[in-house]
Input
Amino acid sequence: MSKLPDCFTPFSQAIDTDELPARFTFPFYYEPHPLCILAAKALQQHLETQTDWQHNFGLTGELQGAIGKMFGVLLVQTAQGEVGYLAAFSGKLAEQNHWPRFVPPVFDMLAKDAFFKAENQQINQLNQQLLLQEQHPQIAKLTAELNELAAKAEVALATQRQRMSAGRERRKAQRLELAAQLTASPPTVTLEEKAHIEAMLSQQSVNEKAQLRHLKHDWDVQQQAVSQALAQLIATRDNLRLERKQLSAALQHKLFEQYRFLNILGAEKSLNSLFKDTVDLTPPAGAGECAAPKLLQYAFKHRLKPLAMAEFWWGAPPKSAIRQHKQFYPACLRKCQPILKHMLEGLAVDDNPLRINPAAEKPLEIVYQDDALAIVNKPAELLSVPGKEITDSVYLRMQQTFPEATGPLIVHRLDMSTSGIMVIALTKASHKQLQKQFIQRRITKRYVALLEGSPKALLQGQREGNISLPLRGDLDDRPRQLVCPQWGKAAHTHWELKEIDAHTGNTRVYLYPHTGRTHQLRVHCAHHEGLDAPIVGDDLYGKRAERLHLHADLLAFTHPLTGLPMQFQVDPAF
Output
């Protein structure tokens, strides 16, 4: 019997091989296979009991310096038919790339004989030179001196211009006086005397302008001497910056070329080639270090057949993204999609569920309609407007229902997974008026949501409150959103307790969004600085279920034609 690969872990209990998956996991949207859940639990038990290394995951209350981490398990089968699993962590663990039980990195840049350390040391030395140059005392001294000379020059030149202005006024008065003297009866000045005096006045003007030029020249000379000395220091600094940039780019390209990924067909591609046709053009930081590529690479190198995969978060939640301890998550899109697209070639993979229209058979109920607008109750999983893969939407169905209308025009949207009330404008005039009400926030919107367990605010005695967490898109993993105080857009939500389910312990709340950011209510509920309780069925920020338990149940506004107040309320189906 051939020796099993070092990182192959057999199951400690008997498994039913009849239940092996027929197709490999679609890594960007999946429900973990039962055997992957079993493998993940075994790995989690190992993480709780191992003593080989120490890493602060933030699980013991020590959040200072805590770094949670994604772990992955890959269900594999040997050539002899034995089923087991591989385990991996994203990035480094306890500052190391290699630990027992875990697969190695695709390329170990920290290896003793790797070029990275030596060339990175060269860049570090350059960084030290650059730091010294940036902190060169003469730069600050000369900059201050140049600013002082500029300020003094400005005062001196302004003073000279004031003198010139006063001189002009004085000469103007003298010329008027000469004219009066010449026209007096009898004249008190002769034409020859007037011409002589005017020549003197003109010469005064010429002299003052010359004085301004000389003064400006003198100050320019002083500033130029300081400026040239400063420019030499800055040029040295900028040259060091350019050299560092070029060396870093060359090292990065060389490093990315060492990350070479296999697939089951035996084809191999580098990170550079995999990302050259993407929006980024070059691999983003951390590409190739995620758990999924490391797992597949090891499997292909050791002739193991990949069967299914799952990744979970281990540790305290990060500040921005929503991650829950032991919760399963899909692979990230920006860093992993180009790599996994290549690595999964030749494997039978589950279909992308995001290309399947889950609302195809769901009716769109019209709650109310008149000549100006319609009120609809959007079912969960129906798009508000056509998407890239699926065109079926509220917009398309309204066009088909009201073909003679000068609309229909979408005034606002609901997330695909959210059900509830939407107002549809049937004329351009009503669209303009309704849109104005939304922009001016004169519309009342209320949502009802079912949360997992009890929000921490309830444990603190609150029955209502406000959440203000700024949001922006997750560039690495769209459409997920991040909480980002620095770059996020303001997002405000008011919440009220409705009831607590005595049987399940889940909590029903009313949510009133005062802003309309993407996934605002979902993030404000799930984030640990919000309610810290994901909405039931939230496949992005919590756990999947039969649907997202979020429903827009109330909408109040002013009718765009009659000016009368209107209010609509529809109970959720959950």
The mean pLDDT is 94. The first strand starts at residue 9 and ends at 10. The longest helix spans residues 191-258.
